[in-house]
## 1
Amino acid sequence: MDLVLTTFLKMAFMLAVILGLVPVLIWAERKGSAYIQDRTGPNRAGIAGIRLAGLIHPIADVLKLLFKEDVRPAGVHRVMYALAPFLVFFIALLTYAVIPFGDYLEVGGRRIPLVVADLDVGILYVLAIASLGTYGIVMGGWASNNKYTFLGAVRSTSQMISYEISMGLALMGLLLVSESLRLTDVVAGQGQLLWGFLPRWGVVIQPLGAILFMTAAFAETNRNPFDLPEGESELVSGYHLEYSSMKFALFFMAEYTNLVVASALIATLYFGGWNIPWLPRAVIEARAGGLLSLLLAAHVAICALAAALFLRRASRERGRFGDGRDREPGLMAGVSILLGLAGLAALALRPWEIGPAGASLLATVLQVGAFVGKVVFFCWFFIWVRWTLPRFRYDQLMHLGWKVMLPLALANLVVTAVVVALV
Amino acid sequence: METFLFYLCGGLMLGAAAMTVVSRSAVAAAVWLVFSFVCAAGIFALLAAPFLAILQILIYAGAIMVLFLFVIMMLQGPVLPAETARLVAWRKALLTLPAAAVAVILIGWAAQGREAAFGETPVTGTPAAVAELLLNRYLLAFELISIVLLVAIVGAVALGRRQEVQP
């Protein structure tokens, strides 16, 4: 019964993080593209003048999509047309089951491993689920009974099949080094130091494999520069062209869910997962009191700085708009001051005298935080690349997949195998 | 719990397989076949063979059937009129059911009295166990099969290109 409960709690945590990241990522995509293209980006939607730099926009989007008419074009294959968006979203969520998001959580002397399903065949599971991801797109594109959507589906299939091979072969190199298919073992192996000073991360031991895997991950998620399945200029918008309302929203959410999956995989496999470099769990637990005090002090300092900046803006822009928007800087300053006061109150509770249970909890929280931080960084990396690189031409895509990445991945595998056999 | 899951996977698999046979459109048949593959993977997982289960999804559902579906969709696979489809399905069922029954009876007859022996050997389908068999005990056969497959691929490519070479 305990196992069922903890598993459900872990699933709920993962789901909350992922679904919570999706609207933030949509906001980051819009603001990031605006920043890269020297625009302002979305800043109009607001509740009583509170706009939070465009963060209200995702809420407005969701409301709009919920209340839109669900149009079903004539001549669609009804069952598959309805099933496709759910399938895409469902399969996008499945991968999270094997990704470890922390080491363990100590509750009442018991250690709960922070991974939903610690499969013996974790890496192969990831590949298998990734290969299933095509079905939703193919079904959606075919069932819509439209030439553009069908072309998008065909492109997506051929692209995914082509890049899956490089992805698998790049992973095999990592597998040879980590000597396990289990993702928790792969992450634990990355916690050590190489020659005493370099973190033994996948990207350090397998630099070529890491680059190949990341490129293949871009192709598997259909993100620019590999977003030919939805190439707007020639296919209008590809496989989800005929979808409207929440069905379109599911496709849209699945895209960002896939992005989070790919980021989590890159972080887990090649960038140490939940490991904090040069700060293993034992060190955190030994110096928990000092660390916690330092973190709280930093929190108070950041809050003070934010409050000062908001207050300055409030005094400078007094009455600039003449409506509710004028209240925003003042309100934000108030929130910052409250958060800072909360930090001060926590400091007053003497955090440097934290007990062993608290130390263990702190270590777990810091490790989960490190994992989420890495995931967020790679999500931003995806957005960054999307708005920096132009889209490939189709022949360039196939050339890169089959004639560049596949030989490189094979060479990487052979060299790794020889080195592992000799050492 | 395991028994329940076994019957669930098995029932869904049989249902999906039946739908594969009686579906009117070839695309729907292919999708049902994928579903039955996934259920088969579930049964492998229940039999303590996670490696086989994953390979079933990775290779059959994820790679081979994607290509099948791709080709069917490109060629606009036939959608049979309802009556023809029912006739074809019945003919298929009449032909295959006796064959399947005979096969099941033969297997049951051959396996008679061997349940104990089968039950005593611990069968594990972990990657390590499979690798031990494939890459140690049966290494020669394994490598020979891969060469046979390579020859088959080269032969298929040569046959496919023959018309182009001779104008």
## 2
Amino acid sequence: MINRMFNSQAALATFAVISSIILGLLAGCSPSSEPESALGSVESIEMNDALVVYSSRNEHLIRPVFALFTEETGIDVEYATDKAGVLIERIKAEGKNTPADVLITVDAGTLGYAAQQGIFQPLDSADVVERVPAYLRDDKDYWTGLSLRARTIVYSTERVNPEQLSSYQDLGASQWQGRVCLRTSKKVYNQSLVAMLIAEQGEAKAESIVSSWVANLAIPPTSNDTKLMEAILAGQCDVGIINTYYFGRLQEKQENLPLALFWPNQTEEENSGVHVNVAGVGILKHSKNAAQAKRLVEWLVSDSAQALFAGVNKEYPINDSVEINPQVASWGSFKQNPLPLSQAYLLQPAAVKLMDRAGYK
Amino acid sequence: MALPTLLALLGVLSSFLHPDIESLSHLAQYVLPQTIKNTIFLVVGVGVVTTILGVSLAWLTAVCDFPLRKFFVWALILPMAIPGYVMAFALVGLFEYTGPVQQFLRDAFGSSNAFPDIYSYGGVVMALSLALYPYTYLMVRNAFQTQGLRSLEVGQSLGLSVRESFWRICLPMARPWIAGGTLLVMMETVSDFGTVAIFNYDTLTSAIYKTWFGLYSLPAALQVASVLLIFVVIITLLERRSRASQRFSQTRSSKSVAGRIHLSGMFRWLALLACLLVFSLAFVMPVMRLLYWAVPNMDTELTTQFWAYVAGSTSLSLLAMMMIAGLALLMAFSARTYNSPFAKIVVRISTMGYALPGTVLAVGLFVPVAAIDNALGAMGLSTPLLQGTMVVMLLAYSVRFMAVAFSPLESNLLRITPSIDAASRSLGVSGIKMLAKVHLPMVKGGLLTAMVLVFVDVMKELPITLMTRPFGFNTLAVRIFELSSEGLWERAALPALAIVLVGLIPAFILIRKSDVR
């Protein structure tokens, strides 16, 4: 019994020793390993001048943009990157005390979801309204697109005559039996493409289109767009659907690539065209720096920022007055689908379920 | 220690307060049947393969003698430093239809149709097993080594052949280590997302992410996560059950290992071949692939920032390693001292964090922490107190990796018999002194294993790091994520190689310390 008691004291003492060592380590190590950010946060509280951005657009794509912004305006930008869904939960959890001012994501669906979760405040910017076409920003003014990502058809120039191609839905036709490649339905780009089909064609029609795609698949869905193009190059399939910038990267690496882009749904009725999604931005409701945040958003839609923001990733600028990268220009111009992107969020769950039902993995 | 884990688990279970019937009924009809089946198949497949690989390689390198044995002792640990998704990407790149192997077959024989499809059940099991077998290998090797050749000698003195002694004495005696290693592997498999995503093999974890990010329903996603937790409870119970009635009380330091078994002619080469095969598939091949990508991109990636990533990863892993191993040691000793059902439950709960998908755990922890922080802020304390500091990060790591540190310690502690306590007390050594002078040296092997496992696991960790890191603080894993999620695998190769290289150091130290011969 005595031993028992002694042991419990011993355990307590050990605990005290170990935890004090750990605390000591923490105290000793954390300032030394992050001196700049510790200083930075103190400054931002006192002087209220560094903007904090949460972004699901990757670091190497936003870093040069923010560097230019700081250079032109003198406003510092700090940022944290993560998946959009996680960042939104983080902002909700942080509530009023969130250090963040701005959220950037790479998909209209997540922007719509963020708006619905009530984390944004209205942009209320004449610049944005003037420079960004209405269908590429939120109808309630909670977010705006910043660059366009076009999802289009890619085909083998050796085995496909582009005259055979016409629309997304036509990839389900019998001539493409066993010749189609698709990326996994878990990628948001395909989810928003199918959401667009639902908006355009109705849910029943969209489901039969997706089913006909699945029936035409040459190989199981690939894990990314680059793999899809490699499969076409290796002769496993002849056509597929990809985002244009992946094509741009492959083209840059490999000259005389026997692949080409095709712009579908151009001759269809008025309400159709190439499916586009946006990378976009919203200002947080609890931003302590809303004026500066607005300045960042307005700067991001300006000509000089647009060329860089879209250019670093071979995407399309949000406003067609901006000059585009010559490589991107060489793929030709196309008619965009004018479907308002604020609908993407509403239709995306239906799209995901539809693809599950159609057996599109 | 169980408290934060409990917090995260409760967060998951509390989702039942707001059931999202619409999403759930869709999932139940179209998604769950297939993903549950896939998850079971995957866990069983990876569990079996890693056990076979881990145990046999551990036996060969710990007890037998064959050419290059000393090299393979530590070389076979190295694949642990390769994140599962990197392993998968390298394997797929090599063996898929468009990869060099099938290309070669087509050039040589006109067709590669006979080659098995890498995008298959077999492919996923292979990738995960090659990435995870070192967990079992490390733990079981520790067992074979400390149990010494003594047991083998005893067997032989009883007239058993080497083979019989292995099956009847050594293997049963190593059961807690085998079970512990396999349990870790299975939990890691259940929570894996990156590897299965590359194969487009849908598991419960992929269903969770799809529900969260695709259907925009975090409640339904968490409800799927509870299905996954049921899995883990079942696996854990089965493991407990399988050895509930056993007691392990043998101990001998490795110094007592007598001569090794000298394998006869052909077996020597077979042993060498087996080790070589596993080592090249699980390490040489992926590293070559990474090198092939990394070299041309050296100029773009090898910047001053890169060294900041290396420093960030290393210091973070060291810190987490010391803290988590310390906490696990404390927990293991306390659980041993207070051998009550309550203590057992506490231990079980604190080790469950390993099986939750990382992102779910990160959110499950972040939400209550932020709530506490906001409450403190409302009380007039300056904010942010907890967020954006390393404290939250380390707390979350310890929830996630407690199982990794605890498992090797626990098996070693099983060997410290009550009579050893009694003996030491009779010599006037008790309390802390007994812990330090008697128990600690006896679990040294387990502690070292725990430290290496935690170090490497923290190096590879992503979701928690992403969510809780202070602004401007980056690690190698974060860098890999940033690049690979945009499909820039070529540029992600250099940071991936750096993780492997830094991971080598502790593996090396471990072997130097534990392998006397």
